[in-house]
Amino acid sequence: MTTKYVYPQGLAEQHPVQCRISIHKRLNKMADVVAAGADVANDASVTKAIETLTQAGKQTVNRQIIATNSTAIAQIYLYAPAGISFSDGLAYDNAEMSAVVSALQSAADSSNTGTENAIKTGAGALVGAVAGQVRKSGIGQQAQLQLGVVRNPRLEMLFRAPALRQLSLTWKFMPSNASESAVVEGLIKKIRMHAHPELSGAGFNFSFPDVFKVDFITKGGGKAKMIPFSHAYCTAISVNYGSSGPAFFGDGSPAEIDFTISLQETKVLSRGDIEHPDGKPATTPAANHSYTAYEPNPEE
C-alpha cells in the first residue's frame, strides 16, 4: 500500500504544477540471499538461493534496480519549488595529436628511395640525438624564448562519457495548523528513512537505499512540459528549523522549516533516453517537422 503525503492543504487548487516524489523499493537480491541463508541439507532452500542469485545476475546485466511495474512505497505531493535547474554534463579530454601527425608523415615519407631513406634515417638519428641533449640542457626553451615560436600541439577533443545528472530542490514549509505540521513531519521522516541504507541482522552489510523518482505534474495528472529526471538516489538532505527566528506551535512542532534534498540519477543518459524518455521508441519513422516562431498579424 502506498503512503501519501500532500502539502499544503488545497495543493491542487493553489498550484497548477506540483512536484511528486515517489519512493520505490530497490531490488537487493544478493542481500536477500545473505539475509535468508541457505540450508545445504535442504534441496528446496538451495534451489531457491540459486534462483535468487540468477535473478540478481540478470538484474545486474539489465541494470534493473526496481521491480517492473513497481508500486511506490510512498508518494509525496508538494508545490513546485523555485529555481528548478537541470544541467547536462559531458566529459571530454584534451589530447595532443602532434605525435600522431608526425608518425603519419613519417609513414608517408617511407615510400622514398632506399638512398633517400638512408640519408633521412641517418640525419634523423643525428637530429634526434642533438634534440635530446638540447631538451636536457634547457637550450631548447631558451631558443623558443628568443625565436618566439613553439610547437603546435594540435589539440583535439576526445569524448569520454556523459556525467550523472544531479538535482537539488528546496521548499519552505510553514504549516498553518496541527494537521499540516504532522504531514510535514511525516514526509521528512519518510524521505530520510528511505534515503539511508538498511543494516543486515549481523551488522556486517548495508543494503542499498531505496530509489526516488521526481516528476512535475499538472493538477489534472498530466506531465508538466519540463525536462524529465530519471530514477535517482537521494545523496543529501538538509533540514533547517526557524531560519527567520524561533517559531513553534504550543506542542513543540516547528512553524517554519527549510527543507532541501539533493538527488543523483542512477544512470547516464544517451541520445535515445532524451528522444524517448519513457523508453518507448516510435513504432514508425518520425516525420520531418518544421518549427517556426509565431509572428502576430499587425492588423490584429
Notes on the structure:
This protein is α+β, with helices and mostly antiparallel strands and about 300 residues long. It has two domains: about 5-35 and about 65-90 and about 165-275, no CATH class; about 90-160, no CATH class. It is about 35% helix and about 25% strand. It has eight helices and eleven strands. The strands form four sheets. A four-stranded mixed sheet has the order 1-3-2-9, with helices on one face. A three-stranded antiparallel sheet has the order 6-11-10, with helices on one face. α2 runs antiparallel to α3 (about 45-60). The protein is elongated.
Describe the SSE topology.
Blueprint: E1 3-6, H1 11-14, E2 17-24, H2 29-36, H3 43-61, E3 74-79, E4 90-96, H4 98-109, H5 114-137, H6 139-147, E5 155-162, E6 166-173, H7 178-195, E7 198-199, E8 206-207, E9 211-218, E10 232-241, E11 257-265, H8 271-275
Parallel strand pairs: 1-3
Antiparallel strand pairs: 2-3, 2-9, 4-5, 6-11, 7-8, 10-11
Helix pairs in contact: 2-3
Number of helices: 8
How is the largest sheet built, in terms of strand order?
1-3-2-9
Helix content: 25-40%
- Alpha-carbon Rg, integer: 31 Å
Structurally, the number of domains stands at 2
Average pLDDT metric = 80
> How much strand?
15-25%
Structural class by helix and strand composition: alpha+beta
Order of helices and strands: EHEHHEEHHHEEHEEEEEH
What best-fitting shape do the alpha-carbon axes yield?
elongated
In this structure, how is the largest beta sheet organized?
Answer: 4 strands, mixed
Span between termini: 55 Å
Low-confidence stretches: none
Compute the number of strand runs. Answer: 11
